[in-house]
Amino acid sequence: MRGARFQKANRGNTSVATGVLRPLQLLCDSALTGDYILSLEGTGGAFKVFTIASTNGPPLLVPGQTVTNGQPVTFITPSPTRVFIEALAPGMGTVTLRFQGTGNALGINHQDTLNIAALALDLQPVTTDTTPLDLAYTPCAIEEDGTAQFRIGVKPDAFPDTQIVWTDYSGRVSFPYGNTGRTVTVRGDSEGPFRLGIDIEGFYALPYVQGDVLKPTNTVDVTVWIVRDDNGQNAAIEEYEVHDLIAGLNRIYRQPVMKFQVQNNTVFYTNRTEWLDMDYSDSASLTELMNCSYGTLGLELYFIRSLTKGSDWMGGVESLYGIVLTTANGCTAKTVGHEVGHTCNLQDACEDFPGIPLAVEGEIREEWMPKDWGGGYYPPGMGQAELLQQLLMYGFVAPGEPMGDIPAGRIYGLGYEGDMDDPNNWHKGLLKVGLEDINRQPFHR
Ligand SMILES: [Zn+2]
User: Fold this and answer.
1) How many CB atoms neighbour CB 7 within 10 A?
2) 404 Cα: distance to centroid of ligand 1 (angstroms)
3) What's the CATH number where 8 sits?
4) Both 246 and 199 in a single domain?
5) Which of 153, 243, 250, 351 could bridge to 122 as Cys pair (CB 3.0-4.6 Å)?
């Protein structure tokens, strides 16, 4: 067919990442006399059309404009001709190429249209965003026969969910409520690694997520001790708060498919006023406290009011014998989850640390998060420091923070082995903060 149309590859719908210049082939080869009219409609500021592959000069068109026969620039000869669409900001638009007959061909008109979308994607395998049920989006693992929610952000909002298609390349997961949309429910069907690709109509690069379908481990028993004063008053924490913390712990550890329960649903008390407020340097007392129980084959949590290290307040401390948690400044499930992470073999990750002359600087990159890259659709310009702050194992935990992420693999950051007070033990590198290194059946001695 001759006339006025777009090259076949460009027909129908196309999507462009913001910041990308995409060529568009125009075929203007009618045998009749007439005019070729190119117009652009759509979101203001979202697109520009250029006649050359450069965004330096003045554009041929911006949304709302029309040119006839390419005037003042001749874009239609020789045919085929290429123009270039720049996507500047999220938006939707339409490019129309029309032939309008003149002279003997007067009244003969035809046209071709192309729907264009300028998209900004946001796919973060490492994120602290949670679902309405307070579970992690896009977790590192799904329980076999269980489900999890995975999410990709696609701007503009007007871009239809039906053109966002999730595909499983492993055969180990399925989509019980459909595989299209910004948020999908993924079911773990059989144990093993999985990889999901997200196909967006017209989009060249394929965002992806990888993870594991896991069978649950044995539920971890947690022995809980609460310190009170000598008279059995002023408990460091109330029992109902402990149960809330364990519920929160279970929401966090749904990421690596682990479960915790208070042993026999019963907490223990010890009445020692001197243990309500402790000093980190008094290791003898801390050890004595953590020996209230031993050999439980599960975890041991000891709640006190405060723990200080010099002038610093500490949210908790973990050892082979148990976890001491403090409540004076509030105790959150994230704090508990962080300390439990240490028992599970994970390490602290920081971007910098007082007195340590090493700092993590620069933008995120694939080699700094090899299993959690997802194609690179984190927010533009995001720093590695910002990414580290999303982790459950981020070294500074403050009350009231959102749930921390347990990534699939190791993440580059500043960490230490052994005694953190020895500056020689600190180094930068890929740190054990994710599923890859987790011991899913932890216990204290
Ligand atoms: Zn820590």
Assistant:
1) 15
2) 12
3) 2.60.40.2410
4) no
5) 153
